[in-house]
Amino acid sequence: MSYTIQIWEKPADWPWPTTKAEADAQYERVEAGPQVPMNLKYAAWAQAVEPRFPGFWDIYLGGPDITDPTFGVGINTRFPDWGPPFDDGWEQAARLGLNLYDPQSGVHYLANGDAPEEPDLQVRHAARARQAGDDARAWAEYRRWAARGNPHALYALGRALRFGTMGQRRHFDLAAALQLMGAHDAETRKDAQAFYERFPDKAKARIQALMARLRAAPGEPLLKIVDEERKAVDDAVARSEQLALYSRKRIEAADALEPAAAQGHEVAAFLQGLETVIGWEQPNFENARSWCQRAADWDHEPAKRLLAVMFERGWGGPADAQQAAKWNAAAQEQRQRVQQKKQAQEASESPGGLSLAPMAAASAAASASGAAAPLVWTGNPLRDLPAWYAREGDPHAAFHLGTSDEHGRYGSPVNLAQARAWYAQAAEAGHADATYNLGTFIESGKGGPKDALVAKALFMLANTRGTTMQVADLRIKPQEQGPVRALVMALREPGRLRGVLQERGLVPSLQAPGGAAARVVGAAAAAGLSAGEWGRGDGAPPSPGTARPPEPQTPRSQAPGPSRSRTGPTHRSEEDDDGDEGDAHEDARYGRSTSTFAWHLGHAALCIGVANGALLIAFFKPGASFRMGMLVLGLIAALGAWRTARDFDWSPLARAVVAVLAAIPLLGMGVCLGLLFKALRERG
């Protein structure tokens, strides 16, 4: 018994039929065409399918007498399962640009992957795979049919990239383009158009250009464009994270985050939340919560935990205990799903279900928590929010905390030992200026022991990482070159810097006050718990309404630069020789001085006092008004000198020079006071 299938080829200048009537009309026109020698593609199709499923296809190629414009073949109905061999026959036909027509059911199986009579036929395998939880197979099936121009598959790819399903990362531009291309009925067209209208005009222009590229590249080139566009966003985020470690490129790196986050990249949105707080002169906690909300909605587990903290502490908006509990539960559920999936994968890949992965030490979590300070709330989000990111391993947040502890900012006392540990954490992640600051600490003994060799190795490492500070005066002795080089090699190994420093007793683990309670908090933080479960040293429930607003800060304190320069002018690499305008903007944004002597009001007052002291000595004239003026200016100069020397981490020589300069107006002030008392005595 045989089941007949007709094979036919659509002329290239005919459009693809979208309805059964159009497909029937095209087939009839081809069948009624002139008698011609047998199409060579029919023979190629026969040679491709027969060896793959022997006995299924009943094919007769015949000889020169076969001149029909269509080609009829039979299917052996005794075959137990028609599905795989028929799907293979359709696939081989599509590869050659041929269409299959089933006269018995009236269904056309077109070379573009469409079947007008059964619109979801092509993607049934993908839909079944997705229902079974096999996202990888479902995605592969949709891609396979999308390459053939199947509208249902194109629309499915767009939906996956829009909502982040089937294990894919979001890409909103691609999602809109693919949905518009694949919309095949009134409902899908309405959905695709509504999504497209939500984009601003600039983004709509991008989407239209992307659609033109996709339509001009059918088949595998279409999938290549999709992959390249997605990879470009991932590469931009990875490049931004690496580029930001070099401080002079921080603005360029930060500017790349927002476009990636706008495309739906959850990691970029999560990092953008931190950038809106420590990357600008005025922190914006509302924007931080908004970006964190997006990343959490896009299923980023750390963002869910941070959003719970924000709702609990009232950062960037009103406190909401219910929302905090909701996001805590969502984060915990996601962690459990990931853990269960990982365990199932390990079991499936191991003989007899026995995992071959090495067993972690029981104290692994505890030892990991010792690398960073237990998170204890200070009540100031300008410190607490970066501390949360630092616990997640963000080097910029750790550097921010290091400068805060070094200079006693954001309501916290000066803690040089903890600043050293924060710098070590950031330096281990590759932060150039943190590496430099750590070198200055170890060189001078701030916050811990000295070690000249390690300091020199850190300065060399900071220089190779692209620090903004010049480190040209290391003065490495010949006998020190070997040990310093060995230290540089050890310190630059991933994850080894703090271990090497701890072995030499130079960087202790970060600590926080609170005794046993703080240790409990540290263990909770190591377990990955969120707002309702960590961060309170006394164990008492928080009071959402008592979160204090951030204290006003000076603009330059938002993202301070390295502690000091060793030689004077800042170091510029060859790639930075594109003008000073961008550097000046960067320095203004991040509060860094363009030289080693940061200018502010204290310096101006000091210069005025010095000048007036010189005038007092050189051009002294009797008169009470002049004396009183010198007295006031002398006081201003003394105050400016004191503030200048206190605000900056100067070397002993620089402090001595300031003291001498401050003594000049003080001497003039003393002379003025003496003359004033003398005049008062004479009047009395």
Q: Please tally the β strands and state the result.
A: 5
Q: Helical amount among residues, as a percent range?
A: 55-70%
Radius of gyration equals 36 Å
Mean pLDDT: 77
Question: Any low-confidence stretches, pLDDT <50, length ≥5?
Answer: 359-373, 511-600
Shape: elongated
**What is the beta-strand fraction?**
under 5%
What is the CA-CA span between the terminal residues? 138 Å
The order of strands across the largest sheet is 2-3-1-4-5
Task: Count the DSSP helices.
Answer: 28
* Main beta-sheet annotation: 5 strands, antiparallel
Structural class given helices, strands, pairing?
mainly alpha
Could you provide a short overview of the structure?
The chain is mainly alpha-helical. It has 28 helices and 5 strands.
Structure description:
The model is unreliable at 359-373 and 511-600 (pLDDT under 50). The chain has 684 residues and is mainly α. The protein starts with a strand and ends with a helix. Strands 2-3-1-4-5 form a five-stranded antiparallel β-sheet, with helices on both faces. Helix 4 runs antiparallel to helix 5 and helix 20 runs antiparallel to helix 21. It has helices at residues 20-31, 40-49, 83-96, 124-131, 135-146, 151-163, 172-182, 186-197, 201-215, 220-243, 250-262, 266-278, 285-297, 301-313, 321-349, 364-369, 381-391, 395-407, 416-428, 432-444, 452-465, 481-491, 497-503, 515-526, 581-590, 601-618, 624-647, 652-683, and strands at 2-8, 57-58, 71-76, 99-102, 107-109.
